[in-house]
Each structure stands twice: as structure tokens, then as C-alpha cells.
Amino acid sequence: MIPKKYPLACGGTLSVCRTDKFKAGMLSVSLVLPIERERTWMTSLLLSVLRRGTEKYPTLAAINRQLDYLYGTELSIRNFYRGDCQIVGFSADLLGSAFLPDGEDLAAEVLDVMHQILFCPLLDANGCLDARYVESEKKQQCDHIRALKNSPRGYASERCRSILYRNEPCGASIYGEIEAIERVTAEELTAHWRWLLSVLHLDCFYVGAESAERIRAALDVTFGAVNPAVGKQDPPPLPTVVRTAEEIIQTEETLAAGQSQLVLALRTGITVLDPAYYACMVANEMLGNSPISKLFVQVRERLSLCYFCSSHYNSYKGTLLIHCGLDAKDREAAEEAILAQLRTMANGEFSREELLAAKQSIQSAYRQLGDSPAALESFYFGRSLLGLKETVESTRKRFGAVTREDVIAAVRGMTVDVVYFLRGTLAQKEDDDEDN
Amino acid sequence: MKTTEYSSAVLNEHYVKIAHRSGLSIYVFPKKMAATCAFLTAHYGSIDNCFCTPEGGEPVTVPDGIAHFLEHKLFENEDGSDSFEHFAALGADANAFTTYNRTSYLFNCTSQFEESLTELLRFVTHPHFTAESVAKEQGIIAQEIREYEDSPWERCFQMLLEALYKHHPVRRNICGSVASIAEITPELLYDCHRMFYNLSNMALVVCGDVTPGQVLRVADHVLPKQADPLAAVRVMREEPALVHQCRCETRMQVAKPLFSIGIKDPNVPTDPMQRLRRDAALTLLDELLFSRAGEFYSSLFEKNLISASFSGGYSCEEGFGFHAISGESDDPELVFTLLQEYLDRVIREGIDREALERCRRVLYADELRSYDSTDEIANRLTAFVFEDVDLFSYLPILQSITKEEVESLLREVFRKEYFAMAVVRPFEEKESKK
């Protein structure tokens, strides 16, 4: 399934994968913004405020009732990082018209809700965003930041990332800092909204059974009059890449939890734009992305040090995070075991079967991309940000050519940048109590 | 071999059930997707901790968490290999999980389906446990338990079940505790496997671009030629209708208090079709009462009394059922009071027909969407097969539920004595500084 691209009257583009494989399709409308420490968190806040009420649907309940009426369409806010860009917008899962009793044009109606949210938020007499909604969402965003510690695993990953990317755009928190959020006014946020509309360039993506013409017509009717001048926007900035770590940053913090978290952040020097990308994906799969990976088999199964020990490769930034949850007393043993696995791979101590299994696993995952509208969208949208034109199938085939030497070279190029340890103080307290 | 076909014109889907000579029930759901998914499931979960053997005698009680422990250990083979390796060599992705009443082993693949199915049927039916490997697993699962204990939402929900139920084993953590899993031995694991992994107590569900003939070819080759039914009898202590405790609290690393309000359903029908109807009607009712389009959520949210992390819904299985309404609030007691006031008012005034129809649309669409993934189809079909209920019967039931039926349930289920609440509060200032 290869998407076809269509220009939109509003200056943006529509990519369509037409297929009748699914009962529900997916439509996304995205805006790509460079990450800027002063603006990014404000965009996050703005999205939540816009979602609270519009001219036609003045309350959250009214918006949600309309979406429920449209066959429970889930209209999700998109707000995430890809490389050093912030992607914002909406995605909706649309039931195909073949399954609607009256054959309604769901896409047009859902787009109308999106249009309301983006362009017609509830404003006061001065043309300012509704102060109640602004204050309420400021509180929600601050609460969300405070609640990051509720999940020790997520918190540890987030902390390690912020240390790793301290000098890069994506090191800025997507939710910002509490003090700044508390200070922002409805006027400032309204100005930010108006700025956002002035740079609006929509990248739309549809996977489903409706014709491209129908979706394009609905988009043109909805967004037709908006900003054609912004159509010739510069391509989004390519991610900054730090190829090698200069020194290892060791950081330890504490949290009132039973389990401790160890996160190692590595620079691979390889991104999706590099020829070695395929080898790096295979190396990550063998290292810590499957139940037969080195980390799972050695650190979890053989040494019995943790329940999970896995690796995650960020191919936009060329970084690799290794994470495990463990008892504080096992920290050194686990760190040593993790580094030993990297050395093992760098020395080529892996079997032909391990290499083949990793390549097969990745290729199987690529074959399955076509089974999910969201996965297809994520692949093609992500690649388009970097100007890549490869298809799922052509990408999949290239993994087959990865050799043992390619994997060894990829692992040899990896350097440890950050070792982050989140010490769970509750377990320590229990141990102290026992000693007493 | 008896074959039964099921189909749905609305969904444009069909599947077949085959009663295999080995005693295993096999279901094949053809679906043109790249991924084929197979679930082999034992009707055996964490609540099966007390049973009588088929030979009779006194009920046997086994350590909590043993079904989950068995699930972890079954991947190890007698020749020292691990089944994950075999699946990986075939390009398949394998996994397993344990619920209150089921243990499922699954794989999904895009090639070499028959070889992977052979491995699935082989390893689940050939246990191999040693004292050494059991000891090693105790360390791994202890860390898994620790991870759950550090999750405030998991803890809150667990405490709610402990408050709702006095005896029913659903109140125990599926993984057990560090103390209970320390009692597990290879002999106990073999006993439980013999009792519950009898093919007559299991089902195989396959969904993907495969034919029943392909599945049967493997089953005929790997499985025994005849059934050897041997079924343990579950022993359940009688559970009182009322809740065990009204309130349950603890303190953890949280930014603000989390709450789970539970409403126990002591009237879960034993007949599977009646249970499915009650499940559908109460799910519809809870969608109406607690969804984000509803009055309760929006009024509390607009007052900043709750955050966006909010959910409410009903779930039931054979022998237990409850509503759970969970969220974050600076004042959980006030949420509890407002909830009861809201329900009293809805009971007095009745429900809005238009809102009910809107909620029915949402559930109709959710049901349709669930047929877009082979994993999800196989998982849901598995849940239905042990009830011996056709998966496709859910939609007609949902469409036939009347407003009067929902209102009658509304009056029946939300009685004050069925309510309990669990709360996880932040550490007090001096505590968190320790």
C-alpha cells in the first residue's frame, strides 16, 4: 500500500492509502513545528484549551456528544516529537460508510468538528480565549507534570532523555515547566493561537475505504479558505545528531518507590538517513527488543536481575535507550551485565541464527504495518518529514541484506552518554528496618 | 469431527468451530490480513487456586499466583531450549498472559504458520520444570510484582477488589505475592498442569489468512488421537452480596489522590447468554452514566474536581462482576458523594432516550472496530468460547436492549451497600522527605 499525494486548496497536502481492508479508517491532520523551548509547551497547552469548547460546541461535553453521535469517533489530539520537530494536530478513526446505516459522510462531519476546534474556539468579548478554559487547562498541565512521578518507569525514561538531549531542541519538555505555565495569561495564549493560524500548513493522511476524491473534497470544503499563502513552507528542519558521546554523565536521583530504575542512553551515530540504519535496527533487535535478545536472555533470564530489560532505538535522533527495573542492590551487577552484552555483540559473539531471527522479526513487523491504519500513517508521515520516499516494502527488503559485519560495525560505533539511576527509597527503607 | 459454522451479515465475517478428536475445541476465523494470530488457551486463571481433583477427596489449595508462574515456566523445554527461540527462528512473535480465569499462549506471524502452530501445540502440552529453574523464576516474578506495587493505579484497583470481595479469589493479585510464589515447587506446577491443561479444558483460536484444513493438518499431527477428559472441579467459597469494606486507603508516590469507586454486582447470572445480555446492558448504562460526553464527567471536570484521567465501566465474568469508576481528585470523598447524588437523581428521573441511542451507536462502532485486528479477534473469540456463546451474538443483543431494561437495571444495581472506594493518597510532607 503506497500512499498517493494530492495538493489541497488550503496549501497543504493529502496522502491517501485506499483500502477496503478495514471497517474503520483513519484520518489525521498534522502541523509540523520546529521545537522551540519557549513555544512548544505553549502549543501543548493551547491544544487542550482549543479542545474545551467552540462556537458551535461551547463545552467539552458538547464536543464529545457530537463525536459520540458520529459513531463514537475518537478525535485524539496529536502532540509528540519526531526528531527535533513537534507534531501537533488531530487524528480520527472513521467507521467506513459501508457500515453506517444511512451511509453518512462521516469524514466531512468529523472535519467540521476539527475545524471548529482549530478556528472557532470559544472567545470572550475581547476576542480572547475563554479564561475559565485557559485556567483549567493550565492546572491540568501542571498536574500532569507533577503526575509524571506516578510511573517510576516512565519518569526514569523521561529524566534520562532530558539529560541526554540537554543541548538539543528535543530536550525541551513538551509540557514545559510549572512556573512558566502558571504565569501565562489568556491574552498570551490567544496571541500564540493567532500565530499558529498564521503559519498553519496542514499535512493530512487518510487510510481507509473512502475515495481520495471524497476525502479531498471534504478537506477543501472545511479548510479551503485557510492560508493558501503558507503552502510553500520550508521543509521541517532535519534532526540534530550527536554522533559520539564525549564523556559519560552519571546521574542518580531518588523516588519513593520499591523498585529502582536503571537507564543507559547511548549515541549510535546512525539515523534513518544513514545507510547503516538497517544494521542498527537489527543490532537493537538482537540487543534488547525481543524475548530472545541478549538483554532479555542474559540479564533477565540467566542472572534473574529484573522483570524487564529492553532497548529502544530512536532512529530520528540516532540514540538508543536501555532500561531495566531492579533492586537497588543489583545496580552494579545489572550495569556490568548490560555493558557486557554490548561488548559481546561488538566482538561478534552472536550466532547466525540470532542474526537471522532478528532480521526475520523486523521484516515480519514491516509486513504487518499494512494491517494497521495508524502504523501505516506513522511510517509514511515520519519518512515524509525527512524527505524520504521509500515504501514499506522497499524498506523491509533492505533488512534482508544486513550482514554480521554490518551489525558489528553498528554496535562498535555506540558510545554511552548517560547512565541514569533512579533509586527506589522504599525498598531501602524496608531493608534498613529489617537490619534494625 | 463435528464442525459448526457461524456468520454475521452485518459484520461480513464468519468462523468455524471444530470439535477435534483430541478433546480440543478449535476455532478458525479467516481474515485477509498479513498477520495470522493463534491463541491456545487453558480455562485456568488466577482464581483457580482451590479445586478438587477428578479422583475426589478434599479440596486442594495452591499458592496464589501459580497459574501466572506456570505460564512463565512453560516456555522452557526438556532439551534446555526455550520456545521463544523456536518461534523467533520461524520469524514468529510469541507471548503469553494470565487473567483471572484464563491463561493464553499466542503467536503472530506472517509466514511459516504451520511450523509455528506445531511449536505452540507442542510446548504448551509438554511441561518441564526443575527446582533450579523455578528458583530463578521466583526472582524474576518478584521484580514483576514489585513493578505492579510501584504502580499507583494498579495498587488502587487491587485495593478496590480487596474491599469489594471478602472471599472470592479475584481479590488476590494475578501474580500472587513474593511470599506466595516462594511456596511454588515443580511438583505443584506439574499437578496444576495435569489438572487444567487437559485438552478438553482448552481452546485453540486462529485468526488470519488460513484455512481450517491447514489448522487441522497440524492438530491431527501433533495432538493425541483421542480425548482423555480429566477435569478438576473449582471450589469457591460463598461470597456475601455486600462489600467486604467500604473504604481502603494507602499512601504512595502520587502527585494527587487517585480513587477507584467500585460497585459490586452480586447478581451475575450463571447462564452464559443471560450473563452476556447483562454485560451488554450494563456496559450501555455505564457508557451513558460515565462517558466523557456525559453529565457526570463533564460537570466534575468543569469544576476541576477530577482530571482527564477518568474512566468508568462494567465488567463481569463467571462468578463475579463490578462497576469501577476511577480517576484523580484532590477530594475523592466529595467525588463519591456527588456520584451517589447523581445516580439517585438519574434513578428518580429516568434516562434520556436520545442519549441511550447515542451510546448504543458508540458501542456498535466499538464492536465493528474490534474486527480490524487479527490479535483482537482471536483474543475476543477466546473469551467467548469458554462461555460457549457465539461471538456474533453480541451485536444483536446490544441492538435489542430496551430503555426499560436499562432503567430496571439502574434501579437494581446502584444500591448503597454495594459501594466501596479505594484511595491512594500522596505521602504526607514529612514522609516524602525521608
Q: What letter string, H or E per element, gives the SSE order of chain A? A: EEEHHEEHHHHHEHEEHHEEHHHHHEH
* CATH top level assignment of the largest domain in chain A: Alpha Beta
Radius of gyration computed on alpha carbons of chain B: 23 Å
- Major β-sheet profile of chain A: 6 strands, mixed
CATH architecture assignment name of the largest domain in chain B: 2-Layer Sandwich
Overall average pLDDT of chain B: 95
Q: Based on the structure given, which CATH architecture of the largest domain in chain A is correct?
A: 2-Layer Sandwich
Q: Which shape of chain A, going by the Cα principal axes?
A: globular
Helix/strand/pairing class of chain A, anyone? alpha+beta
Overall 3D shape of chain B: globular
Low-confidence stretches of chain A: none
Can you describe what's shown?
The complex is a heterodimer of chains A (436) and B (434). Chain A is an alpha+beta fold and 436 residues long. Chain A contains 16 helices and 11 strands. Chain A has 2 domains: 229 residues, Cytochrome Bc1 Complex, Chain A, domain 1; 187 residues, Metalloenzyme, LuxS/M16 peptidase-like (Cytochrome Bc1 Complex, Chain A, domain 1, 2-Layer Sandwich), CATH 3.30.830.10. In chain A, the strands form 2 sheets. Chain A has a 6-stranded mixed β-sheet, sandwiched between helices. Chain A is globular and about 65 Å long. Chain B has 2 domains: 233 residues, Metalloenzyme, LuxS/M16 peptidase-like (Cytochrome Bc1 Complex, Chain A, domain 1), CATH 3.30.830; 186 residues, 2-Layer Sandwich (Cytochrome Bc1 Complex, Chain A, domain 1). In chain B, the strands form 3 sheets. A 7-stranded mixed β-sheet of chain B has the order 1-2-3-9-4-8-7, sandwiched between helices. The model of chain B has no long low-confidence stretch (mean pLDDT 95). At the A-B interface, helix 2, helix 4, helix 10, strand 9 and helix 12 of A face helix 2, strand 7, helix 4, helix 10 and helix 12 of B.
